[in-house]
Write a structure and sequence with these properties.
The protein has 316 residues and is mainly beta. It has one domain: TolB, C-terminal domain (Neuraminidase), CATH 2.120.10.30. Helix content is 0%, strand content 48%. A six-stranded antiparallel beta sheet has the order 1-2-25-24-23-22, with no helix packed on it. Strands 3-28-27-26 form a four-stranded antiparallel beta sheet, with no helix packed on it. It has a four-stranded antiparallel beta sheet with strand order 4-5-6-7, with no helix packed on it.
Amino acid sequence: MAARRKQNGIGYMAIIAKSDKMFELVDEDALVERIATGFAFTEGPIWNPVENCLYFSDIPNDMRRRWSAADGDGIVRDATGTPAYKCNGMTYDSGLNLYICDHSTSYLVRETPDGGREVLASHWQGKELNSPNDVVVKSDGAVYFSDPTYGRWPVFGEERETELDFQGVFRISPSGELSCVADDYEQPNGLCFSPDESLLYINDTPRAHIRVYNVNADGSISNGRIFAENIGDGELANGVVDGMKCDALGNIYVTGPQGFWLFDPGGEHLGIIEMPETSANLNWGGADWNDLYFTCSTSVYHVRMKVSGNRLSYMT
């Protein structure tokens, strides 16, 4: 691997390239910018294209926060006011309704722009969900979310026994029907669609791999196979597969040891965008969706890319 490091007054970022194709996506001299810091563990970044701001969660401190270039960082929800429920993954639909994975309640909820809050999923076959972790919304309005047990751990959620005997991935149809689309994961975590929504990528943290599935006409998924593996050793302290996103060209970006690992649509490992802290999640933002925002332990970072994000419904 070739590493390109450059000091920027905040620290450094290294582009660790395994292929020259890496530099088609990010400049070899790209600089990291630390835009906010002082948190316990940041997660769930989501860019609001109307407010031109980034929302993200600080799970152990039980806060939802907001950052913009104009206003800096501030608290949106916390235990002293409107609860944040130790929220994790977040996304929008085409109407800018916000979908939130609440660790404390084991709910997947939807908040409307005017502040309304609706629980979309809380139980499966009469038993509480483990703890919804990350979520994506398809262009037809169907919702897919992962359900590991992390929200039942101390610090990152509310410690309590699980009711389900498996960790899976669920779908909510456009009409509101809940179904389980995968049930053979140790800890399903990040998930994302390919640009044409014909493929769904889901990673499994302890197994240190990403699987890819065909998305069928009825919304179910099939033909699961390994897309990438050996992304670290599955130990949380060493950096693991967690947050995952796709760009407009179909390349996959996922957390892992050292930072964010990039794979082309065929599964070739292109390289790593190295971070000075343990990586947790990422998302696209900015006026042209060419800005990547990274939540990394105590801080949030930004880097300008040569490619834009996969255009989900709220981004068009």
